[in-house]
Amino acid sequence: MNQQLRMTKQRAAVAGALDATDEFRSAQQLHELLRDRGDAVGLATVYRTLQALAAGGEVDVLRTDDGEALYRRCARTEHHHHLVCRSCGHAVEIDGPTVESWAVRVGASQGFSDIEHTIELWGTCADCRAAAAHSG
Which pTM was predicted? Predict the structure, then answer.
C-alpha cells in the first residue's frame, strides 16, 4: 500500500473489498459492499483511499461515459488495457502491442516523445448476451 497512506482498519477494509472483486467498481459500489459486509467505513474514506491507491499505481481507474470513476486492482503491474462488459462490469486484462507501436509512431510523427495513453474497450460479455437473449 502507498507509504503516504497510513494503514487503518477502514483503509484495509477498502483494500480488501478491491481484492475480493475482479470487476471495476465505483466508490459508491465499494462503499455499499463494505456496508453489507458490516464494515463501518465512511464514503469519504472510500474515496480518499481509492484516490491514494490510484495515485500510487495500486489500482487502475476507468471513466464511464458519464465521467464516473471505476476502480479495480489488476493482477498485472505492467502497462495493459481492459476489455470491460458495460452490463456487469466483468473485465479482462489485454495486451495491445499494435496500439503501443501506433501510439509511439503517431507521437513521433508530431515531434512528441514519452507518449502515454489509455485505451479501454467496452462491450457486452457472453454471459450478459446470453441472459439478454433468454429474457427477451
Answer: 0.72
